């Protein structure tokens, strides 16, 4: 029995994943629908987090907090140990999340009408946030072959070379493609962005979620001083299931860029992360490794189970195991079904809420994103619901 086998009822806990389905999926009653959509896990937070937050609560004064050096130091040690990347604690700026960090970076380093380069299908806020800030989008759609995505670097160069393109948002590992970008690919992205003076925002929030021997390479780790300017975003929130606690780091080695970002924070009156996030972060980065090792093995087995069961039961479904992230990208194109019909069948026949692929860009049409980070019993239920929907 694994600690991740415990089924915890999350309905009526103000959970985005469990308590928002009526609005998200435009249905009247979601009380019998199983959610396997947004990227949070149905697992309890690591015991060290519950203990650290509990200890913090033993001190009943909850005034403004600061991040002390030992907490930032725990993150610096984590990236060194897990990703062999040496960073200086002065390079680390805090934010309440990676998505708000994306907004700050877009606002600080680009102007309205500038364009932001992305590689769809990709995490929706990469376009939602810049568009809301009145920036244009430049899309270099990834090439999919036999379940594997890659970049067409000729197309990427054409996009990066456009005068209006000022920022590239890299997703590494890639959500929803599950790609852990190779060093060669990263070097080519760096070379082209340097050549055309395009700033890179490397969103590496899924960096710790690696499977089957794949290894994450932080983009900034392999960059030289002459290379493109890079801002890396990382967080403990996906790795340790702390999304509701809200914390993220922007790692910026360039002093001038860091000052500009700090000025932007000041212009929005942004304070440091909240009291509980600081306690939680230090706990997981100093004592979370054992929990994470068990989690990764559990998630990997969950993915294997879906890949064994669903394609065998439903003709026309193809699933490639992600190299990183706990998000399965399910290809149903060979069933010949349209997205609308698939979503109706899933919601009304299967009673299962998955993300439709077109949410990640038009190039995602024909795919579904399934979050398999749940207890095995819940997963087995989800598999049955999926199969029922396609029968
Ligand atoms: C690539 C990527 N970036 C950012 C986020 C969300 O970050 P945050 O909750 O820190 O805003 C997610 C969540 O799924 C994600 O997949």
TrEMBL record:
Residues 41-386 form the Aminotransferase class I/classII large domain. Its cofactor is pyridoxal 5'-phosphate. The keyword Lyase applies. It is an enzyme of class 4 (lyase). It holds the Pfam family Aminotran_1_2. Signal peptide: none annotated. GO terms for molecular function: transaminase activity. Keywords: Aminotransferase, Lyase, Pyridoxal phosphate, Transferase. The keyword Transferase applies. Transmembrane segments: none annotated. SUPFAM superfamilies: PLP-dependent transferases. Its EC number is 4.4.1.13. Belongs to the class-II pyridoxal-phosphate-dependent aminotransferase family. MalY/PatB cystathionine beta-lyase subfamily. This is cysteine-S-conjugate beta-lyase. It comes from Viridibacillus soli. The lineage of its organism: Bacteria, Bacillati, Bacillota, Bacilli, Bacillales.
